[in-house]
Design a protein that fits this description.
Layout (H helix, E strand, L loop, with lengths): L1 H9 L6 E2 L2 E2 L25 H12 L7 H8 L6 H11 L7 H25 L37 H16 L4 H17 L5 H18 L3 H16 L10
Antiparallel strand pairs: 1-2
Helix pairs in contact: 1-5, 3-7, 4-7, 5-6, 5-8, 5-9, 6-7, 6-8, 6-9, 7-8
Amino acid sequence: MRRRAMLLGALALVGVAALGFSIERPRGYGVTIDYRQLLAGPPAPNSPAAVAERAGFAKTAAAIGSARWQQAARQVFPSGPAVTAEIACAAGVDVAASPAAGRVVARSVSDLSVAVEAAKTAFRRNRPYVGAPDTRTCDPRTLGSVGGSTGGVLSYSYPSGHAAQGRLVADVLAAAVPTRAAVLAAWGDRLGDNRVVCRVHWPSDIVAGRKLGDAMFAALQADPAFRADLAAARAELARAPAARNCPAA
């Protein structure tokens, strides 16, 4: 139970209360990336790209209530048990059985969140449902059909924290379980894509988040403490039991 709690904490978004208790951000490695050198910013208002994204957002209403929509709803809180189970199935092993895996993920995500939050604050992009005729989302923090605003519980839209975390966690775990790299990558990208399905992010937010996730993984590899934790995770996961109750491939 303690190991599973460690993994849940490792995947917690900043400010999220998981399973009814508050989780503080763990200490990172102190590795930094500069979002200003990585992100060009969201499409300019009324640019062709912005117009296309608004049109695409309107079309996402057709998926409300679908199986993909329900999956996106289960992934709203990456620290929840549903996402933990998804990660185990993608890795092929019980990731929660490895304290080192929980530690390397937690510390990596902590460093990443600094860059994500700084970029969100700098670009201050509205969520797609703000001011839209149809404000329904799968994220309960937007109050469903009532709508939401940038002053609500959710932070700004660009870049996507889910997409950034999905890419980084997939990168880290793929380095620990390389035979599962393709499956983990697919899981990580789906976590980001589902935020568009959920109607709380624009596609360009997802692209930007993935850039930050990949950049953080590249930067982390130069850090000795990260490399030591990753090596420990690789050894523990090699001995971990297989993931259970996974859907058929």
